[in-house]
Amino acid sequence: MDDAQTLSVTADGRMRRWRRRRSPLPGLGLTLGVTLAFVLVIVLLPLAGLGWQLVQLNPNEFLAVIAEPRTLASLRVTIGAAAAATVVNGAFGLLLAWVLVRYRFPGRAILDALVDLPFALPTSVAGIALVALYSDGGWIGDLLEPLGIKVAYTWWGIVVAMIFTSVPFAVRAVQPLIEELDAAEEAAAATLGAGRWQTFRLVTLPHLLPGILTGTGLSFVRSLGEFGAVIFIAGNLPYKTEIASLLIMIRLDEFDYPAAAAVAGTMLGLSVILLVAINAGQARLYRRFERGA
Fold it and tell me: Are the C-beta atoms of 211 and 137 separated by less than 8 Å?
């Protein structure tokens, strides 16, 4: 590719020709066009289809669909199970990320790779595997049965499935921040007399809060939309273990597209609100950290 030629005027008024080397990579016009086209086709068009279905409902019809006892029950089950799974992922995701970064032990690389297994494993396969483990006669189900604990085909089965499918978000969002921690700051805190818990709370945790917020938020949003793994272990009983995603599919099978769109729009709105809140909270934490630094 030829270099671009540009004319400039020197201090004495003479013209001077100089060459500006072009970048070998595509410019803003091409990359921006491809990016916008991708977002339009993959993201905006499906959302536009959902929006078109929603505008067919007036506010009273929308509220009537959402206020149905079965719809409210499915939303409570979904949101409650997602919240419980997120709490577990927030705690154990941080612990797992800490172990993977701070300690060296045999099999560490294998454990690190297994964290991403839920991303690669089809959710239906995950659901079947969870049923085999937690149902009556399963390896874990047999251990829990004498304790009177039943997981498969209960609300707790939904929580377990959501934990399995969303835990990578909690781990991978925090892991890079732990790797970037300055050990000298922790050593300085210990030198000044701070205990381990005090050092973690005052020195380490503020660095990790943005990642924890992002990881738990994404874990919650991912759990809200989980379908394949949940329907195999939940039992899918209306008013008890029926999730919102399954109810949407049922309404579509009944050709009740407005009702399906109303439930889907509610879930989408909740997810968007959470994502916006995550971004705002993350930016606020970074600003606070920079002021403190």
Answer: no
Contact 135, 152 (CB under 8 A): yes
- Tokens at residue 112, please? 């690190």
Q: pLDDT tens, 122-165?
A: 888 999 999 999 988 888 988 898 888 899 999 999 999 999 99
What is the rounded CA–CA span in Å between residue 159 and residue 86? 9
Structure tokens at 154: 């209960």
How many angstroms separate the CA atoms of 290 and 51, rounded? 40
Q: How far apart are CA 166 and CA 220, in angstroms?
A: 8
Measured CA to CA in angstroms, residue 75 lies from 21, 81, 187, 246 at distances of 58, 10, 47, 11
pTM: 0.82
Task: State the alpha helices, DSSP H only, in the chain.
Answer: 28-39, 45-55, 59-66, 69-102, 108-114, 117-120, 123-134, 139-144, 155-179, 183-191, 196-199, 205-224, 228-234, 244-253, 257-292
Terminal-residue alpha carbon distance, the chain: 47
**C-beta of residue 6 within 8 angstroms of C-beta of residue 17:** yes
For the CA atoms of 168, 171, 174, 178, the dihedral, rounded to the nearest 10 degrees, stands at -140
Residue with tokens 């498969």: 152
Question: What confidence tens digit (pLDDT) does each residue in 57-82 have?
Answer: 888 988 999 999 999 999 999 999 99
Q: Tell me the two tokens of residue 275.
A: 């994502």
